[in-house]
Amino acid sequence: xxxxxxxxxxxxxxxxxxxxxxxxxxxxxxxxxxxxxxxxxxxxxxxxxxxxxxxxxxxxxxxxxxxxxxxxxxxxxxxxxxxxxxxxxxxxxxxxxxxxxxxxxxxxxxxxxxxxxxxxxxxxxxxxxxxxxxxxxxxxxxxxxxxxxxxxxxxxxxxxxxxxxxxxxxxxxxxxxxxxxxxxxxxxxxxxxxxxxxxxxxxxxxxxxxxxxxxxxxxxxxxxxxxxxxxxxxxxxxxxxxxxxxxxxxxxxxxxxxxxxxxxxxxxxxxxxxxxxxxxxxxxxxxxxxxxxxxxxxxxxxxxxxxxxxxxxxxxxxxxxxxxxxxxxxxxxxxxxxxxxxxxxxxxxxxxxxxxxxxxxxxxxxxxxxxxxxxxxxxxxxxxxxxxxxxxxxxxxxxxxxxxxxxxxxxxxxxxxxxxxxxxxxxxxxxxxxxxxxxxxxxxxxxxxxxxxxxxxxxxxxxxxxxxxxxxxxxxxxxxxxxxxxxxxxxxxxxxxxxxxxxxxxxxxxxxxxxxxxxxxxxxxxxxxxxxxxxxxxxxxxxxxxxxxxxxxxxxxxxxxxxxxxxxxxxxxxxxxxxxxxxxxxxxxxxxxxxxxxxxxxxxxxxxxxxxxxxxxxxxxxxxxxxxxxxxxxxxxxxxxxxxxxxxxxxxxxxxxxxxxxxxxxxxxxxxxxxxxxxxxxxxxxxxxxxxxxxxxxxxxxxxxxxxxxxxxxxxxxxxxxxxxxxxxxxxxxxxxxxxxxxxxxxxxxxxxxxxxxxxxxxxxxxxxxxxxxxxxxxxxxxxxxxxxxxxxxxxxxxxxxxxxxxxxxxxxxxxxxxxxxxxxxxxxxxxxxxxxxxxxxxxxxxxxxxxxxxxxxxxxxxxxxxxxxxxxxxxxxxxxxxxxxxxxxxxxxxxxxxxxxxxxxxxxxxxxxxxxxxxxxxxxxxxxxxxxxxxxxxxxxxxxxxxxxxxxxxxxxxxxxxxxxxxxxxxxxxxxxxxxxxxxxxxxxxxxxxxxxxxxxxxxxxxxxxxxxxxxxxxxxxxxxxxxxxxxxxxxxxxxxxxxxxxxxxxxxxxxxxxxxxxxxxxxxxxxxxxxxxxxxxxxxxxxxxxxxxxxxxxxxxxxxxxxxxxxxxxxxxxxxxxxxxxxxxxxxxxxxxxxxxxxxxxxxxxxxxxxxxxxxxxxxxxxxxxxxxxxxxxxxxxxxxxxxxxxxxxxxxxxxxxxxxxxxxxxxxxxxxxxxxxxxxxxxxxxxxxxxxxxxxxxxxxxxxxxxxxxxxxxxxxxxxxxxxxxxxxxxxxxxxxxxxxxxxxxxxxxxxxxxxxxxxxxxxxxxxxxxxxxxxxxxxxxxxxxxxxxxxx
Length: 1340
Hints:
This protein is an alpha+beta fold. It contains 22 helices and 78 strands.
C-alpha cells in the first residue's frame, strides 16, 4: 500500500493504517463533546482509544459461537482500557433464530454498551419488540425483563464507569480479577462480573436449559421474588433457567445502589428515588455511589459531582459518608429504601441519626427500611467526615440480626482478602472499640487488637499495607502505594500524628488481581529500607528505584551489594544513570539524606525472589507470566509463623528442580544415561503444592550425526509413552554407533542443568539453565533458552504470523504437531519435537526462551541439528516418515456435482479420468463416532461401494481422529491397487506418511485467506506437504472480490480444492461466477489453474523430493535465504521449491503487492515466457495477469507443460517444455516422471529421473540418472526456452543433429527440439548446443 497520508504526505498508509480508528475518534470526540458529554463509538480502536471512544465488536454473525465469543471480547477490551464495549445483539450478519436472539438479548442487556444492531441490507429486523408480533413473545419478554434489570443496576454501573475513569478499573471483569488465588477461575470465560459484586452466568449454547457455573468460595446471594436470598452452596453449581434474564449472583460483603422504580433511561433514573442494597458477609459490608448530572463536561476536575461511601458494621449500624459533595440536583435525590439481606425475621426498631424510622419490614430473611421522610438528608452534608448512621436493633437491645457461623481464626487465605478500617487516636494507640477491628477478618491479626504502641509496630504495619494494597486513601486523598511510602520515609514516624483531626482514617482497599506486590522492606534497627520491585516479563527493560534511609556509609555499601545480589538472583542487569565509581556513589549518598538512584533492570527470566523482612516476615514475589500476583501470604509477626504460600505451577527459581548425580553417568556406544536427584531445597519447599518425583532417569541417544534424543522419566515408576513412535521409520532401524568426529552436536551435563550445543559454533540449542524442571504425576515442565527470536511451527492452531510472537505467548497442543524450528542468527537451523500423547502447552518468552508443560507421560525430546532450515525438515521427516508422492491431479474445474450421502467431489462431464473423493465415514448410513470405526469395517464398506460402481480413487476423512488416516490409506491401496490420495482434516506427528490435509473449515474472510498461507507453510514443516485450505472459505458467504483473490492464491496451494462448502452455503465453484455477473472471477480461476497445470511437472518433481528426501514443497522464503534477516518474518509470500515465488494479493481493495525479492537473479512472466526482473529488495508489483504476482529464481531449470493441460494425465500424454532461468550464464534442474498411479514405484525403480544443467558456453545437458519407466506414448520435450539471451541469428543441435526450428527474440532463445526422452537409456546424456552466426554464445 503506497498511498500516503498527512498534511504533506509524510506518512505511508501502510505505516498508519492501524491508527485510523483512533485518529478519527479523537476529533470526533472533541467536536461532539464541546458542550455535553455524550459518547463516541468506533469499530476500530488502538492503544489509548478508550480515552475517546467506546467500541463495538465488529460485524459479528448470528451464530451461537459468536455470541459466546462476545463475552471474551467484552472482557478483553476492558483489559485494553475500553470498558464501554459490546457486541451487536443477535448478530449483525445472517439471519438469527428466536432461541439465539432470546439468549443474546438476555446476555446483551449486560454488556457495558448494549445495542441491537443488525445489517439493514437484506437482513430481517431483530428489534426486541418485533418478536411478539411474529409469534415469539418469549424473546420480547426476555429482552424486556433483562433490560429492566439493567436499568435497575444503572446507578451501580455508572459508579463503575466513574472508577474506570479515575482509577482505571475494569467495568466488566473476569472472575480471576476478583479471585486471583483461586485456580478454578483462571480459565473461566463464560461468566463475568460487573465490578466486584455482580456475577452473570449467561446461557450461551443452543438448547441449553441450565448453566454449569462456578461460584468461588465466598458469600453469594441470588435474586428472589422481592429481593435476594443467601446461596447455600459454592463451587461448581448447576443454575436453572428460572428467570427471563440470565442467572445473576451478588457477592457478600458489598453494598450497591440500584434504581428503586423501573426507569427506562438514565435521565428518568435521576428524577426518581434509589435503593441501597446490602449483601452482608460476616455481618459487614461496604460500597459507594457516584452521582452527577450525567451530561456536563469536566465534572471530576471541577468537583461537580457527589461520591458517597456506605459501610455496614456488625452492631446493626449502617454508615453513609458524603465523601465528595459538589453537585446539587434540581429534584431531591431520594434514598427510598435500604434493603439488608441475610437477617433474622423479627420485630425491629430503627433510627437515622437518632430519628426513628417508621416503615420497617423484616421478612424472608431480609430487613427493609423505607426512608421517604428522610428524602433530603443526603443533601444536608458537605465533603468531609460528616456521616449519617443508620442503627437498628431488636427491641431487647440484642444485636443478633445476622446469621452465620462464629468467626474462627482464619488461615492464610484471609490476608489477601483483608479489608482494614483503622481508627488511630491522638495518643498513638490502637483503640479497642469496633473501629479497630479488621472488618471481615478481624481475628486474622488478632494480636494487634490489643493496645500496642504505634511507633513500635509502624514499620511492620506499613510494610504489610504496602504489600497487600495498590492504593491508600488518607484524609480523602488517594495515593499510590509507592508515593505514600515515600511520604512515610520523609516523615519517618510522624505518619500517625494528625494535628488537624481527632482521628486519622486509613482505609486499605481490598486486594484484587491488579494489587502489585511491588515493594520489599528490610527493617534495620530504626531504619526502613524500601526496595521497589515490579514483576515484569522476561526480557523487558524496566526502570527501578531504591532508597536507603538513615544509613551510614558501611550500611549503604552493604545495601549496594544486596541490590547487586538481588539483581544477579533475578538474572537482571543493573545499570546506573551515569558512570560513577563506588566512592562517588557513596559521596552522592552522603550529600543527600534521601537519595534516589535510578536503575534499569533487564529481566532475563521469571524468578521467585525472597526478601527477609525481619525475623518474623518473609515475602515471596511471584513473577509468573508477569502477572503480579501475591498468592496467600500470611503474616503473623507475633508468633513468628512461617508464611504459608500457594505456589503457582510455573517457577524458574534455582531452589526447585534437579541435580545431576555425577556418580550415575553411564556411557554406551549410542549415548549415555544419568540419574537426576530432586534438590533438597525443592524437596523441603513448603511452598510447593505438587509432589515431584524424587529421582529421574535421563537417557540420551545419538541416532544420527544430526539427530539425538533425550528422555526424562521417573526412575522408579513406569509412565505412558507415545505410541506414535512405533510408526517412525528411523526407530525401526537398528542403532549404529556414531563417530564422535561426525556428530554435529554436543550434550553437556552440568551440576543442575544440561544443554545441547552445536559443535562448530558453540551455539546452545537447548539450554535448561533457565531452571524450572518439574516432574510429578500430573504436571511436568521443562524450559530452555533459545538462541534466537526466530521460532516457527507448533501446529494445530491457527496462527496469524509464521514467526512466533515471543511476548509470553502460549500455545496449547494435544496430539497435533508439537514440533518447532529455530532459525539461528547465522542461518543455521534446528528443530525440537516433544513426543508425548498428553495435552501440552508451549509458552514462548522474550528472553528468548520456551517453556514446555504437559500433564502426564514422560519428557521425550528429539532434537534435529541442521545446516539450514530445509535440512532440519529432511532430518525430522527421516524420523517420523515422509510423505507420499502427490500431485497426480486428474480433474478440472466444473460446475457439475452431486449431493447425497456420499460426497463426490470434482465430477465433470469430460471424458478424461476424474478423481472421485469420498468421505468413508458417510458410508455407515448414519453419524458415527470415528473412534468406533474399525479398520475392517472401513475396508468392507469401501469394498461394497467400489464393487457397486462408485470407482473412487481418493478418500477424505472429515473427523477429529487423526489415526483414521492409516486404515483409510491401507483400504484405498488394497481396493484400488493404485496410489490415489487420502485427505484428513485432523493430523498428528507422522500423518504425512498416509494423508494430505485441508486446513479445517475456514471462514469466508480476508483474514482466513491470509492465515491459510501460514497454515500451508507450517504443515510443510510438519512433513505434510499436500495441504491447502477451502478456497473461498467453507463457512459464510464470500464476496466476488474475496473469491477472485482466493482462487488466484488457491491455485497454488499444493492441495488445490475449490467449492468445498458447508451444506447450507452457496456454491462457490469457479465457473458459476460468470453467471452471477462476475466473469472476472471465473477468468482468474481459469488462468490461475492453467498456470498451475503448466507447472505440474515441476510440482510433481517437488513431491518426489518430499517423498525421498523429506523436503518441503511450499516453503517460506527464509528456507532459501536463511542468512537474509529480511526474510525471517515473511509470511505473505511463499515458494514452490527453490525456484517459483508467489506473492498473492491478500487484502481487500489491494491492487499491488509490496514483495521482498532477496539479493539474487529474478525473472517475471511476460506474455509468452519470462523476462529479467530489474529490481531486488522491497518492490511494488502490480497484478498484470489474472494470477498472483510470480517470480522465477535465476540459476534453475524446471519442466513445464508445453500445452495447457487440464490435469496430470494430459501432461503425460502431451509434450513438455524445459524452461531455463540463467544466473551467471549457468543453471541446474531436474524432473521426476512415472505413470502417476502405480504403487511402490520408487522401491522398484519404475520411474525416470532426469537432471538438467546449463553451461556458460550455450550447452544444455540432459542426463537420464534413472530410467525405469517407459510410457506408452512418446515423452516429448517440445521446447527448450532459455531466458536472458541476446537476440541474434542462431543455430542449434541435439547430440550433433541440427534442430530445424530455433527462435531468438524478446531476450530469449527457443529451441524446438522435439526430443523423445523415452528413446534414451539410463545414464544417457542428451546435449543441446546453440550458437550465433559468428560462432559465439548469446547468454547474457
